[in-house]
């Protein structure tokens, strides 16, 4: 698969780059994508939810009325879940939602996400990017040149670049990531994937291991 390499102003450099068919042209596996995104979302959950059960709330344990003869249901104490202010039955408890996935399955999921992006013409390859200083305006000008101002974009850098990251951090619908940190959720969440030229080879090496 051949893609043109664009300049920062959106013009064609006249050069092309070959993308690996083993990554960008595979038949996407939807189930692998589902599992990987499910794991990503589960790992983000804090799991600190907690409600008090009847043994944990403050209140008297005195029997509030006699067992029989009142015409109503029996009640043991004011902490019973049937009363307002009573404990909750089977309430949420702190837990860890994370689960394990095999590396090969996660790798297949990322390849599948990239293949979908290639099918939808959502890939843009850009000359290696660097800013002299962190400026949001510079990043907005870049998006404008690529006609991506109103779209969700994910910019992949070959390595960390503080100025580029800070320039795009406050721009709505935009994410800036390093190749090593990329995940299936972020790939699918973006409408367009902008790859820096140096990031392509690193991405292919990462997913071909």
From TrEMBL:
One Gene Ontology cellular component annotation? Answer: ribosome
* A Pfam family: Ribosomal_L4
Region Disordered: what ranges? 45-77
Q: Which SUPFAM superfamilies match?
A: Ribosomal protein L4 (SSF52166)
**Keyword Ribosomal protein carried by entry:** yes
Which keywords fit this entry according to its UniProt record? Answer: Ribonucleoprotein, Ribosomal protein, RNA-binding, rRNA-binding
Q: What does this protein do?
A: Forms part of the polypeptide exit tunnel.
Family, similarity comment: Belongs to the universal ribosomal protein uL4 family.
Quaternary structure? Part of the 50S ribosomal subunit.
Record protein name field? Large ribosomal subunit protein uL4
Q: Which organism is it from?
A: Negadavirga shengliensis
What gene does the UniProt entry assign to this protein? rplD
């Amino acid at each position: 698969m051949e893609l043109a390499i664009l300049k920062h102003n959106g013009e064609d450099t006249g050069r092309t780059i070959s993308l690996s068919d083993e990554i960008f042209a595979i038949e996407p596996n939807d189930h692998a994508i589902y599992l990987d995104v499910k794991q990503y979302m589960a790992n983000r959950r804090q799991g600190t939810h907690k409600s008090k059960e009847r043994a944990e709330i403050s209140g008297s344990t005195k029997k509030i009325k006699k067992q029989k003869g009142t015409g109503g249901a029996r009640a043991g104490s004011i902490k019973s879940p049937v009363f307002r202010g009573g404990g909750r039955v089977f309430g949420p408890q702190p837990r860890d939602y994370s689960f394990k996935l095999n590396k090969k399955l996660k790798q297949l999921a990322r390849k599948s996400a990239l293949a979908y992006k290639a099918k939808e013409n959502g890939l843009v390859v850009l000359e290696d990017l660097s800013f002299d200083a962190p400026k949001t305006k510079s990043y907005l000008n870049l998006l404008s040149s690529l006609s991506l101002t109103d779209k969700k974009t994910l910019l992949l850098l070959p390595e960390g670049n503080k100025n580029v990251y800070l320039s795009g951090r406050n721009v709505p619908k935009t994410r800036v990531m390093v190749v090593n940190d990329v995940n299936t959720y972020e790939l699918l969440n973006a409408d367009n994937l902008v790859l820096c030229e140096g990031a392509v080879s690193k991405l292919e090496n990462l997913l071909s291991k």
